[in-house]
Input
Amino acid sequence: MAALRVSSALACSSSSSFHSYPSFFTKFQSSPIWSFSISVTPLCSRRAKRMAHSIARDTLGLTHTNQSDAPKISFAAKEIDLVEWKGDILAVGATEKDLARDGNSKFQNPLLQKLDSKLSGLLSEASLEEDFSGKFGQSTILRLPGLGSKRIALVGLGSSTSSTAAYRSLGEAAAAAAKSAQASNIAIALASTDGLSAESKLSSASAITTGAVLGTFEDNRFKSESKKPTLKSLDILGLGTGPEIEKKIKYAADVCAGVILGRELVNAPANVLTPAVLAEEAKKIASTYSDVFSANILDVEQCKELKMGSYLAVAAASANPAHFIHLSYKPSSGEIKKKIALVGKGLTFDSGGYNIKTGPGCSIELMKFDMGGAAAVLGAAKALGQIKPAGVEVHFIVAACENMISGTGMRPGDIITASNGKTIEVNNTDAEGRLTLADALVYACNQGVEKIVDLATLTGACVVALGPSIAGIFTPSDDLAKEVVAASEVSGEKLWRLPMEDSYWDSMKSGVADMVNTGGRQGGAITAALFLKQFVDEKVQWMHIDLAGPVWSDKKKNATGFGVSTLVEWVLKNSTN
Output
């Protein structure tokens, strides 16, 4: 990444094995109350030995992971009276409007009134003392006698029009409450479903499920001690039952599987997740979903044959050789209507090269997450392998390598040649991601695709412009922008379209080559996108997503899995499902 932070990884190995990524297993039972189970298997589980692959040498630092059992959550959609529900925690999502009170400081909302009456007025009294007003992010857990549940949790949803983010936060808050109380069974309900259409109820249940699954997940692979999650079952009350909600929650589980894989890839350190290991994980996806996936991993010699000089120049300094990853998804039956590609930046570690990252704020210690784009692409591949959309062929492409320093490495001032014949004067070895993407984009275009979305932790400039929660998007195509933004609105991930100002290209001109790889400090995210544009066929619709900000949570000191959900939604919008 140019300036600032970026990177990601995968993990697990005490000496010579690397274990499997999370998998979800769902079981549906036909009964008046619909339910199913989700199993989240850590990358390093006891059964992972039979799925492991060998690493030629011991992991640097002799790093190994916990051998933990997979937590399981059984979901059930029910239509029952909340006061009759029995379990550890009843979590109620309430908007600010739901918390309106009468002159006696009592709830006006019918459901809260009913709960309060059953609790002899203690709920309204206690929530008032806790200053709970229903604002987004607020939550309070009360232990009050009188209900079937041992505790009741109130979770704020914000304004009266609740969003995907609000319902997802409700699921996350309920999962957090379960962790804190060591609860094994919880229920989630909304204080009011007035104004929610049937489709909105289904979407709400899906978002709640997503929040609960991701809120339960903890990446403890590299901790010497860790607590096992206690949550075993979660009931979603009052949002419907039957096949439609089954489909929505199953879909949420599939996407969560991809998000968790993305998180674990980014969290894993570079001494464990090398380009070779990342390639093995891609091959594992292909073997797991062999009915729809195939894998082609190109080694250095094969990349030389394709004249990938830009990519190979970045990889030249590392003792860990480059691996070019190409996963292909094709439905097992039916006509292919669309061909699209997802391209992810795959720097498993970025030292900056000879322009080494130094000084405060360089975030070199976080440069494992410079493969956050690759993590999103492979996470989406895993999810799509479970969903199996029809009518769309998808190519998942990652030019995996490390950007290191050695006598064989790329130097400032070198001129390199990309696979489309264009020459690049390297004026900054720390602007390496775009050099790997150049050859990856040329390769993607050669697959005969109509649309390409690339994702990369590309520039610190984008983080400065949009902050830590929003990814910048760049595309010459208004139609593609509308498609991807619509997908992000469903997923709840935040995107913001930035301009591709052609006049800024002047700063990218070289006196001795076709271009340089960096411009000035001003508009750095824009000039990076303009650079990538040079390697995309004009007939192909293309979008670049710079996710350098939202790939990582400084607050949680953990990866977010950003991008997976939006990519899956976008692929489905291009399918015939």
About this structure: Residues 3-33, 40-57 have pLDDT under 50 and may be disordered. The two ends are 37 Å apart (CA to CA).
